[in-house]
Amino acid sequence: MTLALERFDVDGLGERRLSAVRRLVAAGGRGLWLAPIVAALAVTTLYPTVFLIALSLSKSSLGSPFRAFVGLDQFGRVLTDPVFLAAIGRSIVYGFVGSALQLVAGFAIALLFSSLIKGGRLLVSLVLLPLMTPPVMVGVAWKLILAPAGGLLNGWLLAAGIIEAPISFLGTGGWAWLSIGLADFWQWTPFIVILCFAALTTLPDGVIEASVIDGANARQRLVHIILPALAAPLASIFVLKLIIAFKLFDLVYVLTFGGPGFDTTNAGFAIWKHGLQEFDVAQAAAETLIYAVVIGLVTLPVVKLHAALERWDT
């Protein structure tokens, strides 16, 4: 009996050791599968971030980086630069206002397309054209449309008698931002339409049909069924468009070049100007890091709202 018990204990110990080895092998296998992802993240995210931090702490130019260690001097320069601080403010205001307007318009268009029994999906595919147009070409096209001499829009307004003299849409601050917003709206609203249309297709038909039978009108269905059901997806779309808006550069570069004066100089254009026009890559690196922190802070409430909507939806 004693020998049998000893044999049983030895066998049990062997099984436990074998199970532990199997777990280690499985963990190692998962690690091997994750290794390429970790390596890609290190190359695309970690290295550029460390490089930016190193640049921001040094005296560097485009042709001669890391000439001397200056500590936090670059950050002090950036935080006391009224031009860059104003540029950050413009980027934030434009990001939230432009993204909200495009989300409302894109959702309304998607709702219209989804209500069409035939042709809705075809129309969604047709609105892809602006999205497939290179941003530089979008800027060039709208610059020609908005030109004061020979521009299509000024020509129409003059012919209709709405204005008596051409308007310099890109030469005055308020009109310039409206022009940038119009070009951005034309380019990116189709993207919002596609995402909203896809979200609308996830709604169960039975719920909508039941509400119609119960006598709910279109406004009641929108307010009490569609919007609550799609709150989380719409928040995701808004966050995505907000990130895209914060990165705005090409339209500013082509349409106004940051002018008139500094009226349309946003954060992206200011960083480009310091880094690639004035070759002060150290200041550009510090501005990039500060702008990234600001973006993180201002988008945090939106991200938290999105997370709350996701939990509520589940």
TrEMBL record:
GO:BP terms for this protein? transmembrane transport
Q: Which UniProt keywords apply?
A: Cell membrane, Membrane, Transmembrane, Transmembrane helix, Transport
Q: Does the keyword Membrane apply?
A: yes
Subcellular location, record wording: Cell membrane
Does the UniProt entry include the keyword Transmembrane helix?
yes
Q: Where is the signal peptide?
A: none
Cellular component, GO annotation: plasma membrane
State which residue ranges cross the membrane.
32-57, 92-113, 122-145, 157-178, 185-203, 223-244, 251-272, 284-303
Can you give the residue ranges of the ABC transmembrane type-1 domain?
88-302
In the bilayer, the protein is annotated as: Multi-pass membrane protein
Q: Which family does it belong to?
A: Belongs to the binding-protein-dependent transport system permease family.
Protein known as: ABC-type transporter, integral membrane subunit
Q: Which organism is it from?
A: uncultured Pleomorphomonas sp
